[in-house]
């Protein structure tokens, strides 16, 4: 596999995701019905037992697995590992009962409480922020086609090197994050830059597993969004870029054809794209 960037020393981006998760409310809300716990955990364990038998897993392999699991916890990489390798299946189940714009996984790098910006909005960025400028416009509507005024687009993205603010110490807090509010016609206009592909940190336990299995550690370039409006079900989604590297082999298996943007070159080095969101009643 070729890589387009130097391996980032992730120095903490995975473990900062554990702190962000603990500070969030994402870990509350599941029930504790013993029958449910038993059903899920029994099947999970049976799946592991099947692998052990099918692959004739040895004692050294079992102990190596234990060591690796300890390192994932100590390195604070459980949110990273689970969101990369498991969340897409959970999202698939959630999508069975969701109408409107396709959703996809949230991932480990969402941070609530960003600046609220009226449209047209420019995402907070450094004075010398690198990357191809992108003007991202569209409307938020309900499933009957009615525009949703004052809907919120909570947007976050990596920079032109694939790093997220809040998880990379060299970036200012809130960089390339913002909560953009639609106007009276449900329209939004967001000025930003095109992100780079994201590489799972190669220096942590998740990256070491990826290397050990000879997989690649890349996600295609993407914008993250939570799109919400009062009385409507929030959509968690991501938008990708046509022709982008890793689009067909996302390590997190979270792409969908409906979520691929095709920005038009404006002839002056900038790009622009329109994309509409549809929210169902809550
Ligand atoms: C990301 O940027 C991401 O979006 C996901 C889902 C997992 C790891 C890093
Ligand atoms: Fe991401």
From TrEMBL:
Protein name as it appears in the record? Catechol 1,2-dioxygenase
For this protein, the record's NCBIfam families field holds: catachol_actin (TIGR02438)
Indicate the segments forming the Intradiol ring-cleavage dioxygenases domain, all copies.
Answer: 136-164
What lineage is on file? Bacteria, Bacillati, Actinomycetota, Actinomycetes, Pseudonocardiales
Q: Which cofactor does it need?
A: Fe(3+)
**Which family is it part of?**
Belongs to the intradiol ring-cleavage dioxygenase family.
Q: Which residues form the signal peptide?
A: none
Does Ligase appear among the keywords? no
GO function term, MF aspect, one? ferric iron binding
> Which UniProt key words apply to this protein?
Dioxygenase, Iron, Metal-binding, Oxidoreductase
Q: Which organism is it from?
A: Pseudonocardia sediminis
Q: Which Gene3D superfamilies match?
A: Aromatic compound dioxygenase (2.60.130.10), Catechol 1,2-dioxygenase multimerisation domain-like (6.10.10.40)
Q: Annotated region Disordered: where?
A: 1-20
The Gene Ontology biological process terms listed for this entry are: catechol-containing compound metabolic process
